[in-house]
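Input/output pair, single chain:
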Amino acid sequence: MLLALAIAAVTLVVVATVVLPLMKGARAAPERAAFDRAVYRDQLKELERDRARGLIEGDEAAAARLEIERRLLAADAPEPAAVRSAGSPMLAVALALLLPAVAAGIYLALGAPTVPDEPYAARGPERALAAAQGRHRDVAGALAALEQELQANPDDAEKWLLLARSVASLGQWQKSANAYQRALALTKNRPDVASAYGEMLVFAADGIVTPRAQEAFTAALARAPKDMAARYYLALAEAQAGNAQAAIDAWQKLAAEVADPELRDRLRARITETADSAGITPPKLAAAATPAGPSAEDEARAAEMTPEQRQQMIRGMVDGLAARLKANPEDLDGWLRLARAYTVLGERDNAADAYEQAARLKPDDMGIPLAEADALITDHSPQAPLPERAVALWQHVDAQDPKQPQALWYLGLAAAQQRRLAAASGYWERLLPLLPEGSDQHKMVAAAIAALQGKQ
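Output:
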């Protein structure tokens, strides 16, 4: 209703603008002679003032007066009367009726008068599109800023990894592969980076495992034999090379180690597709490994137990997991689960030993030795010296990743406990720029550095 009233008001304004001048007729323009006569009279008055002040002599004043009077007389000559256009009431009435009718006809032909109003809040697809466009602009701006930072500091491996993951989320596979390649060189061929680099090469080649991708996956497996992505794509390379049975066997081994339903569905589809292409009867997918965690029945049974019985059940599950890992010592996830279980039970040394086994399987993951060190200092008294085993782990992490804040903090703390104040200050001065300025951590480290400098 409001829209209709607004359109009617605009139409009335337009009609009035066009019709009213036709009703009144045009006004005669003012005569040019009247303007000229006023100018000449002003010139005569100015001439008299100049003569009275002595600025012009009598003969010159008389000649000028005669000239001005001649022009004044000429301006007094009659001019043809200005034509005054007469109004046209009939034309005005016709236009007043015609303009709204034409506007209404155009709207009825091109508009949609029967469609109800739809507030912007109710237009879900349109709002989703606008939000997506806004996010795209935000992501594009963030990527541009990240690329500028990398131009200034091209040796920052973590930022190359961030760029690689970010452009991969936008489907820019080749650009992501290039970023992973830079990160691979900076991380000294870290296996997870090599695997991600190979995957981007596969995506960029429309699903073909190229020779460069095969090299990346092989390098990843050489240092991380359980890397599932590398194993999956190397099996795909076998299938693309015509070695169907080798590909199926590799995928079956992988299926036996994973329980994730989505990944198992992908493996089943690959095996079926490869077998059908080779004229082989598709085998049944290998059974998944038994999950190490408690089942729903275990949880229900635990809810009915006393605390002592529940603790005994947990101990039995942990011992069972430890026994299975002795039979299958290459299970990285199993060792990590066992380490976390021992940490919950408060068995620090056992937790550290489990983390150490996990670190053996994934030596380039600095998160594992950091977790091992955390397990060693669980319930650690601030007055007691930090365990030497934990200090050695932080030193190992610092040697591999000099920008690891957790390692730098504890190494500085260990040095301060040993009264090696210059070394402690050095660790914390390296840590300070890695912390957000103004944060509580930044203030705490700055205060610690100031206290050390006061003691030196």
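Confidence is low (pLDDT under 50) at residues 81-85. The chain has 21 helices and no strands.
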